[in-house]
Specification:
Distance between the termini: 67 Å
Largest sheet: 2 strands, antiparallel
Strand order of the largest sheet: 1-2
Subcellular location: Membrane
Shape: globular
Oligomer: single chain
Radius of gyration: 22 Å
GO molecular function: G protein-coupled receptor activity; odorant binding; olfactory receptor activity
Helix content: over 70%
Order of helices and strands: HHEHHEHHHHHH
Protein name: G-protein coupled receptors family 1 profile domain-containing protein
Number of helices: 10
Structural class: mainly alpha
InterPro entries: GPCR1_Superfamily_Member, GPCR_Rhodpsn, GPCR_Rhodpsn_7TM
Organism: Champsocephalus gunnari
């Protein structure tokens, strides 16, 4: 009996330590990301000329979307790690926000690739929808698509009569809230459709910009940057797609590693949910000369205020 109690205590201690380590890894990353996003959004707010460019408007929109996605996913992560349960009525909005902003990311990548394509192929006759004063129509359309599919997924599920959405506490995870086979099938079909369409768009724009670059005699630098940006969009999309290989990888890794399913899930969450969002300000913010200069001046200004001579 004493040995059994000791083993149980060791297992509990190991689990608690694992949770603490995971939280201590996620929270600093999130705080650093949030700090960078706040600085960049402040730069957009204080320099109005950025809002005259569709490219910068889409970039600011992506930063806001990634912030909402990370905020909701980190909250859900902490709730699951701490085994906090609460009624479905409070859980569903968090899951809807997390899912819709995750799907939003793929559509934003496609939209930003198309914007680069339009800017290079039609530099003087840009279509009206891609002008800075009309880009909000495309942004609203993206939100409409991203938010409707999770709503449909939730509405088509079969509800357990024993679960009262107003009072029955549940663990806030998609596999518990949207657990019926029809919901799993719908979710898989939508994810495949989204990523297939976005992959085709990114591949199309990359090839078109590549061909255009070879024909151009002037402004090759701008076209080359656009080509590299679209290529980075494809890399980000690949990281997002890998997040959906969790069930396959879990079944392959489980017999060969001593990790628990929770550890494998955390590894996937960190590598394919968090990391792609951390890459966004690095890829688009620090590669852009204008933003990089403004970013440096902002931090220099803050450091001078913190350490006055």
């Amino acid at each position: 009996m004493h040995n059994l109690t000791e083993l149980t205590g060791n297992a509990t201690s190991h689990t608690s330590l694992s949770v603490i380590i995971k939280v201590c890894v996620v929270i600093p990353f999130f705080c650093i990301f949030l700090c960078c996003i706040v600085v960049m959004l402040r730069i957009f707010a204080t320099n109005r000329h950025f809002l005259d460019s569709s490219r910068y408007i889409l970039f600011a929109y992506m930063l806001i979307n990634d912030t909402l996605q990370l905020l909701s996913s980190v909250i859900l992560f902490l709730l699951v790690m701490c085994l906090v349960t609460f009624p479905t009525v409070y859980c569903v909005p968090l899951l809807l926000l997390s899912t819709s902003t995750f799907m939003n990311t793929t559509l934003i990548l496609a939209t930003m690739s198309l914007e680069r394509y339009v800017a290079i192929i039609y530099p003087l006759q840009r279509p009206a929808a891609w002008r800075s004063d009309r880009i909000w129509i495309i942004i609203l359309s993206i939100w409409f698509l991203s938010f409707n599919f999770p709503m449909i997924e939730y509405s088509i599920g079969e509800r357990d009569p024993a679960v009262d959405i107003l009072s029955t506490p549940v663990l806030c995870k998609t596999v518990y809230i949207n657990s019926s086979p029809i919901q799993a099938f719908f979710r898989a079909a939508v994810n495949i459709l989204f990523f297939a369409v976005v992959s085709v768009v990114i591949l199309f724009t990359y090839i078109k910009i590549l061909l255009k670059t070879r024909k151009m005699r002037q402004d090759k630098v701008s076209a080359s940057k656009a080509k590299h940006t679209v290529l980075l969009h494809g890399f980000q999309l690949l990281l997002c797609m890998l997040a959906f290989t969790l069930p396959i990888t879990e079944s392959i890794m489980a017999p060969h590693v001593s990790w628990s399913p929770e550890d494998i899930t955390f590894f996937y969450y960190f590598c394919f949910i968090l990391i792609p969002r951390f890459l966004s300000p690095l890829i688009y913010g620090f590669r852009d000369q204008t933003l990089r200069d403004r970013f440096g001046k902002t931090f220099l200004c803050c450091s001078n205020k913190a350490n006055p001579v």
